[in-house]
Amino acid sequence: MSRGGVEFRLSASSVLKIQKGDLTRWSVDGSSDAIVNPANELMLGGGGADGAIHRAAGPELRAACYDVPEVRRGVRCPTGEARITPGFRLPASHVIHTVGPIYKTDNNPQVSLRNAYRNSLRVAKENNIQFVAFPAISCGVYGYPYEEAATVAISTVKESANDFKEVHFVLFLDEIYDVWLNKANELLQN
Ligand code: AR6
């Protein structure tokens, strides 16, 4: 799970970790940990990481998502916002669902991606989560260029990592892992 993981200490009490792996198998303590699901606005499942998370969590997750109120027709979580549910059959205790921008059509993809990371961390903090694991939000189906995404992801997490014991990036693709690691070495003094 933590194959190739590299730790960056952000303060006396908080660590950012970059690792290869599968979010559906990630957990640190099973009671105050959360994985972040790169969902869509409808929030009822999909392909990519979202599909894998729903399969691993079981049908209870879809039912819990269904119960999240729509803010307008077909939208439970607008782009850049975040919602929380239990993790059900996942090893992690919670799932924070967020929606990153569709790179080609979003008016300001950088702001939307930053909001997705920021609001995920805000929701985590409000729910007393101590350990959070992110994928590379928007870097699959939603087409965000990896290096630009890494800059937003790492700089945003750095701002609020003090509120958590550990924030992890759990990256599925070797290429994205390499981009993230290079960017972390550039932006974080180890
Ligand atoms: N663990 C960690 N990362 C993963 C996993 C996993 N199990 N599976 C895939 N990835 P994507 P997006 C990586 O497409 O671009 C869905 O259909 C993947 O390699 O999952 O935000 C939703 O319903 C990529 O690097 O999310 C939305 O409609 C990263 O996760 C839409 O896709 C994100 O890729 C969201 O697109």
From TrEMBL:
Under SMART domains, the record lists:
A1pp (SM00506)
Q: Which domain of life is it from?
A: Eukaryota
Q: What is the lineage of its organism?
A: Eukaryota, Viridiplantae, Streptophyta, Embryophyta, Tracheophyta
Tell me the InterPro entries matching this sequence. Macro_dom, Macro_dom-like
- Protein name per Swiss-Prot or TrEMBL: Macro domain-containing protein
Q: Residue limits of the Macro domain? A: 3-188
The record ties this protein, via CDD domains, to: Macro_OAADPr_deacetylase
